[in-house]
């Protein structure tokens, strides 16, 4: 009897403990961006990563309304056409799921089991939120602005609408958009149709999809997705720090061709142009380095592409025949640098450890 080839571990991607059926269920609903899409500036909608906590709501755009209320002097209500008639702005924004890299932590936090692909960059078109909040007249007593989506479910034993908040000053940033288009087309259902929030620089959880309500509140918002989830917790009883802006990170376009099962790479020896992207939600990218078998050299940066999109980089590698390990790491203008090893936390948030890619160069 023929035996099946034994599974091999793939570049840090294989978990020490097998995935559970629940993780597989989440992973197949919430797909990654295939890393070869790092080669293009804008991720096509069908290739952009997805993260949906509950179900994708089915929304009739004609009946949909956005309500702005709570601690405001003039509660407002908008149809989609009314929002589209307002000032329009397009921003190229790199979104990353805060749980990206989770499955490479040990022990593995059990949730959406991202490896590297919880990432994507799109042109988001919409109307600036700040002008709407000004029209509504947020009262001086307001501390947070709460954004609620049309999707509802149970998480951590608590039934909830998906909701997140920003402080009033964060919400008043000129770059926060109520977006109704992605890469020049109406939002696809899975990305928040008809209207979502886009909060540039922040991990994806802040960019609430299927937006229905915006409410100014006079006490700090304590919803589940704010106070219980999206925290850097050292242990289960640690309240932890909130997850906010995206940590500095880089990834490379996998060079050459893949092995089907392990995704290990095969290249011809000789000159190989390595390419990738780097981003940080806190400051511009200052430097990217590539390591070949543990020896670091500077990569070349492409020109920046706006304030909120990933930055391209390249590196000319002279590949000697044999097996190699490639790594890349980025540093931003405030000196944040990617760690070599991940920093573990209970929920598996913000893992920005360097990517390791195993490559064999053919003689
Ligand atoms: N209403 C709602 N908004 C949401 C979510 C959600 O489950 N429901 N997921 C959030 C998370 S965790 C991320 S990472 C981003 C993902 O956006 P994308 O699916 O368009 O890539 O949406 C955020 N907005
Ligand atoms: Mo996320």
Which fold name corresponds to the CATH topology of the largest domain?
A: Sulfite Oxidase, Chain A, domain 2
Number of helices: 5
The overall pLDDT, averaged over residues, is 95
The Rg value, from CA coordinates, equals: 21 Å
Termini distance?
34 Å
In sequence order, what are the helices and strands, one letter per element? HEEHEEHEEHEEEEHEEEEEEEEEEEE
Shape: globular
Helix fraction by DSSP (H/I, runs of at least 4): under 10%
Second-tier CATH architecture of the largest domain = Alpha-Beta Complex
Largest sheet: 6 strands, mixed
Uncertain stretches = 1-14
Domain Moybdenum cofactor oxidoreductase dimerisation: 269-360
Pfam families: Mo-co_dimer, Oxidored_molyb
Protein name: Sulfite oxidase
Domain Oxidoreductase molybdopterin-binding: 53-224
